[in-house]
Amino acid sequence: MFKNWLKIAFINYKKNWLSTIINVFGLSLGLCIFLLVFINWQDEKSYEQWVPNKENIYLVENSGKVFGTMSVSSFPELSVTTQKYDEIEDYTLLNNWGKMKISSEGKSVYVSSGMSVSSIFSFLAIEKIAGDLSHALDNENQIALSEQTAKQLFGDEYLKSLGKSIKKDDDGKVFTVSAIYKMPAEKTVFKPEFMIRMPGLKEANQWTNYSYTGFFRLKPGTDPKIVEDKITKDMLREDAITAKKWGYEADNSLKVILTRIDKMRLDAAGFGIEKGDKKSILIMLGLSVLILVLSAINLVNLKTAQAAQRAKEVGVRKALGTSKGKLVFQFWLETFVICLVAYFVAFCMIELLLPKFNTFLNKEIKLDDFRIFLLSGLFLFVFSLFAGVLPALYLSNFKPINTLKGNFARSKSGVWLRNSILTIQLIISSFFIICSVIIHSQVKHMMNKELGFKGDQVLSVQFKKQNRQEKDFNLKKYLRTKDELKRIAGVVDVTGSMSEIGIGMRNTSITKYAADTTKMLENVMVGGIDENYFNFYKIKMASGRDLDWKKASDTINGAVVNEIFAKKMGWNDQQALGKELKTGWEENKNYKIIGVVKDFYINGVSQPVTPAVFFNYNRNWAKNQMDGVQIKLSKNDIDGTITRIRDFWMKEVDEGYPFDYSFVDKNFQKTFQKFENQKILFSVLNIVVLAVALLGLFSLSSLLIEQKLKDVAIKKTLGADEKTIVWDLTKKFLIITVVAVILSFPLGYYAMNEWLKDFAYRIDMPWFPYVLSLILLLLLTFAVVSIKAIKATKLNLVKFLKYE
């Protein structure tokens, strides 16, 4: 019996070979897209699954109206509350030092990540290779090395490196190797190639000095919400004390948020640690499900459209006593075989596309997790039930008395089912077109927006070699490097600043109006700049003038603010001139506004311009915040100029370090790369959706028009012209298209309105994507259906009328 069912299935596959190929191709494409997105989602969820006791370890985050939500904490917030509350067993904190060079016994290693930490080994149960991890970082002169770093420094004798000296090149400090540990092989954001003890913790006693990434380990069974509430009350109290001391308004919206360590990759309330883009992943997952539904709709629609060919078969078998259950199982089996073939084709596609997908995401996802195959196999079975049971029930419900008399396909129920399914298919297609066009429009709006600066041919290079023990080391290095760079052929100009365009602001402060200290702004960007900064980036003045380094008053207490700062203080550009400011970075000194610059973007165009105060970098603490230079290059021989800068840099500036640089305009472009990626992904998905929908429409229209060939023959015999016949065959599909597109409008509007809320500067909801989707789908529907309709008008009349 089972063998006969398969024979019948393959006979029908061969008979309807076009629809079979379209079904397999559409399902393969849908499954491939869905599985790629699903694999990425599973990859993101796999971070920190290796951590023992992970269900009790929480990232500490802080939220407030002034600074938003940050994934950093203060030292007292962690240490004092651990001692105060029994629910908290322990805490740890860490800071990532980034790339740097360490050396020992004449050999150097350039590491990509070093961390300063406290008690992290027992906290995360990191595996020991050598030494005593429990006392590895008892003092600030000890250093623990990863096994990989130890091998690079000491070779095969790395296990004997305990007690040897390590020099950290950025500040020249010497450490003693106290332990060697093994970095987790699993997915993790913790990848330190060396660890040292966090310096200066005893002096870090400000509750609102959010400088550390901190974690709590709670006692088993503790409700984290209770701990959040308790620490929030402490933070509110301490902020009120600090606000009273410094004369600013306390932030009553402060809130502490605890995020589980194995959930923080996607669910951190703030920026987390290497946080993934959960919203984009879920959007893509939802859209890939829609594509899969579209593929299933194709399958259901084509199977029900083929009902007329199977009606007499069902009638005969029912008349011979076959049960409805057996018929349902047989027809479902035919669908399952198609799904199974599509499943294997989909994995072949994934193997081909995965390298490109990894490059696009900048990841190394591998198809080596058996759970993916298990879950996808289970999903395939459920999907085949969804896609197969409906047409199976539809076919098995044919009544023998009707099917043995004539053609069931002409019944109202059959037509209604096909039309409803086709409408859903076209609604999804229209939805994708609308969303794709709006996303393109928003990203184009961001890319074409006037940025307020000119960053083309500007090279940014950060200093790697530091010496925190030498007074004004950064200042001296900056001035020396700047002078030498200007002598290099092809260098047009050099400047520097504390907060770099495309990278973002580094320091913020409270700023008050000196004449009325109740008028104040919080979270103002502090901008120590070089004298040529505004001219370097072609940033225009809105009123007043630029800082003049030849005037002592300008360099000592002169300030330039941006337009948004003046506006938020309640002044226009002219009224701001001459006003004096009290600042959080130098409370006993007033800064006088001598100019207002046009607003320009530093962080990216998805966020509003931040109020900012700019001043001479060389008159206060800011002089040691000049950690790099920005170099404007001549248009001629850019590659040669970069080579000359590299040679100078590696010999005179950061000897022994690799030369890393970036272009400022490219850095800025990265600030909306996420949205550019969304645009690309949505465009790809849109193409896939249209391809699947149109192939399904073509196959469906082919089947339905073939069922009407006798009608066409009769009309031609009675004198109907080809245009009339083509219009009669296509108008039903065009009416369905119009209805479907109109129904998609509210769905597209709601989805895009929610997406646009992420942008501070957004386009107004345009009307043309909705009109475009209607026109485009009408044209495509007419083109696809008319191909078969025109062919139908060329039929041989004798063939269809010889028995009439």
Automatic annotation (TrEMBL):
GO terms for molecular function: transmembrane transporter activity. The chain crosses the membrane at residues 21-41, 281-302, 327-352, 372-395, 416-439, 680-705, 733-752, 767-790. Its main location: membrane. It is found in: Cell membrane. Residues 20-233, 426-635 form the MacB-like periplasmic core domain. It comes from the Bacteria. Keywords: Cell membrane, Membrane, Transmembrane, Transmembrane helix. InterPro entries: ABC3_permease_C, MacB_PCD, Macrolide_Exporter_MacB. This is Putative ABC transport system permease protein.
